[in-house]
UniProtKB/TrEMBL annotation:
<keyword id="KW-0560">Oxidoreductase</keyword>
<dbReference type="GO" id="GO:0016705">
    <property type="term" value="F:oxidoreductase activity, acting on paired donors, with incorporation or reduction of molecular oxygen"/>
</dbReference>
<dbReference type="Pfam" id="PF00296">
    <property type="entry name" value="Bac_luciferase"/>
</dbReference>
<dbReference type="InterPro" id="IPR051260">
    <property type="entry name" value="Diverse_substr_monoxygenases"/>
</dbReference>
<keyword id="KW-0503">Monooxygenase</keyword>
<feature type="binding site">
    <location>
        <position position="248"/>
    </location>
    <ligand>
        <name>FMN</name>
    </ligand>
</feature>
<feature type="binding site">
    <location>
        <position position="130"/>
    </location>
    <ligand>
        <name>FMN</name>
    </ligand>
</feature>
<dbReference type="GO" id="GO:0004497">
    <property type="term" value="F:monooxygenase activity"/>
</dbReference>
<comment type="similarity">
    <text>Belongs to the NtaA/SnaA/DszA monooxygenase family.</text>
</comment>
<dbReference type="InterPro" id="IPR011251">
    <property type="entry name" value="Luciferase-like_dom"/>
</dbReference>
<feature type="domain" description="Luciferase-like">
    <location>
        <begin position="60"/>
        <end position="417"/>
    </location>
</feature>
<feature type="binding site">
    <location>
        <position position="184"/>
    </location>
    <ligand>
        <name>FMN</name>
    </ligand>
</feature>
<dbReference type="InterPro" id="IPR036661">
    <property type="entry name" value="Luciferase-like_sf"/>
</dbReference>
<dbReference type="InterPro" id="IPR016215">
    <property type="entry name" value="NTA_MOA"/>
</dbReference>
<keyword id="KW-0285">Flavoprotein</keyword>
<keyword id="KW-0288">FMN</keyword>
<feature type="region of interest" description="Disordered">
    <location>
        <begin position="26"/>
        <end position="59"/>
    </location>
</feature>
Length: 476
């Protein structure tokens, strides 16, 4: 097999792979295998499109959050020798015109609970939970993560996210929200406090030797003023792995100072290299080496026996992801007005958007709607696209499409040429979406010496090649 361009360095770099459990956002399609004429639910009028689609998805995928779905994907990832299994978090179901948003209809079970159950049916696989730093407390979360680390023999990871909006805050006792500017100061102090708690039990404390300072902590800061004794002995990893997933300058700085892994959206070679250089370049200021932080973009893949077949499958998946009604819902989020009377196969609405309106609540609209409207209008005009075709073309984020050989080659090129340290793979199907990748792509990566052929360590830190925090023996 030929080497990829730029792979002339003497040692090949090891690729790190993780599996993202799909289920929300329209990455996930809901029937397998993709068929050319997948049945589409017609958009109802006043009954509300979201409600109807919710019903459709729930009946088609009632088992989506069954434990068997989680175990299938986790076991596949472990068979593929992946570093970890990843669960996202949504603390408030997003809403569209007062109904549960189309993308959140499968619900959001709590990640650490699911991972604790998976710890019992897996042996090596890391278990990563996304947990918000705004609406939690260090003592409670440090305790849950240390417990997961114990239960799993050193496989726990925490993806620290910082969503801080008032809509989400309504779900919580402390309510309200955090000033956006404070989201990372709180997150940084949260992680620091959690690490103080994890360090409060020195390594090697024997059962019964609980005198002295064991478990004592005192953290007095801007966001947390806590003092007491931590209830969980030091866990196998010392510190569960910390993942970061925010993209602002502050987010990148937080990652450079604090995180072990970054989950990024920069999934093209050029954007990946830029991001990689930027974030790795920030590490030295914190006395850290480039290898201390792994950069792992979240990516999708579509495999085919030929390049043409893969492209065809990818196009069909896009059509399934953006059904006629999803196209209209997506457009309504941007336009801010009810567009239910428009034909998804007709042209973009010529009415002006209402940029102040809030049809959707929660993290559904990411970029500046004015810029989106302008670019979608230009795209539709240039290519003569309908509403649905425009949304399909403009919102597509399919990363690696091709034969297993081509996909293995591309993934390897990313890692050997400093665009990533590995990938968080987001399959399109639940729960079988990773099966083909593990069967057909993993062996090719192993053949070229870029991916492990067995687990050599037992903890997630070992899989990722991260140092083990030593902790101090303070229990005099
Ligand atoms: C790849 C990626 C995945 C994310 N996943 C989640 C998630 O599952 N739950 C969540 O509440 N926020 C998630 N976020 C949001 C971020 O953690 C962060 O809260 C938000 O992006 C604000 O930070 P920023 O301004 O630095 O981007 C994700 C962000 C990125 C880039």
């Amino acid at each position: 097999m030929s080497n990829s361009p730029g792979t002339s360095r003497t040692t090949r770099r090891a690729i790190h792979l993780a599996a993202h459990f799909p289920g929300v956002n329209n990455t996930t399609v809901w029937s397998a295998p993709p068929t050319p004429q997948a049945p589409q639910v017609s958009r109802p009028g006043s009954a509300g499109p979201t409600a109807e689609r919710s019903a459709t998805r729930q009946s088609a995928f009632g088992s989506q959050i069954d434990f068997s779905s989680f175990t299938h994907l986790a076991r596949t990832a472990e068979r593929g020798l992946f570093d970890f299994f990843f669960l996202a978090e949504g603390l408030r179901l997003r809403e569209h015109q007062g109904r549960i948003h189309d993308l959140d209809v499968v619900g959001r079970p709590e990640a650490i609970t699911v991972l604790s159950a998976l710890a019992a049916v897996t042996e090596h696989l890391g278990l990563a939970a996304t947990v918000n730093a705004t609406f939690n407390e260090p003592y409670e979360l440090a305790r849950r993560l240390a417990s997961l680390d114990h239960l799993s023999g050193g496989r726990a990871a925490w993806n620290v996210v910082t969503s801080s909006d008032a809509f989400t805050g309504e779900n919580f006792r402390r309510g309200g929200f955090l000033d956006r500017a404070d989201r990372y100061t709180r997150a940084a102090e949260f992680v620091a406090a959690a690490r103080e708690l994890w360090d409060s039990w020195p390594p090697g404390v024997e059962r019964g030797r609980t005198g002295g300072a064991t478990g004592s902590f005192a953290h007095h800061g801007q966001h947390f003023d806590i003092e007491g004794r931590f209830s969980v002995p030091r866990s196998p990893q010392g510190h569960p792995v910390v993942i970061q997933a925010g993209d602002s300058g502050e987010g990148r700085e937080f990652a450079a100072a604090t995180a072990d892994v970054v989950f990024t959206r920069h999934g093209t070679l050029e954007a990946g290299r830029e991001f990689y250089a930027d974030v790795k370049g920030r590490l030295a200021a914190y006395g850290r080496r480039p290898d201390d932080l792994k950069i792992m973009p979240g990516v999708t893949f579509v495999l085919g026996d030929t390049a043409a077949e893969a492209q065809e499958k990818a196009a069909e998946i896009r059509r399934q992801q953006i059904s006629p009604q999803t196209a209209l819902l997506t457009l309504e989020q941007v336009w801010g007005v009810d567009l239910s009377r428009y034909d998804p196969d007709g042209p973009l609405p010529d009415i002006e958007p209402d940029y102040e309106a809030q049809l959707s609540q929660g993290r559904v609209r990411q970029a500046d709607p004015r810029a989106i409207v302008a670019s979608w209008r230009a795209l539709a005009k240039e290519k003569g696209l309908s509403i649905r075709q425009t949304v399909i073309e403009a919102t597509g984020r399919q990363s690696f499409i091709g034969t297993p050989e081509a996909v293995a080659d591309e993934l390897d090129t990313f890692v050997q040429t400093d665009a990533a340290d590995g990938f968080i793979l987001i399959p399109h199907l639940t729960p079988g979406g990773l099966d083909d990748f593990v069967k057909r792509v993993v062996p090719l990566l192993q053949e070229r010496g870029s991916f492990r052929t067995r687990y050599t360590g037992s903890t997630l830190r070992a899989h990722l090649g991260l140092a083990q925090p030593l902790g101090e023996d303070t229990a005099a």
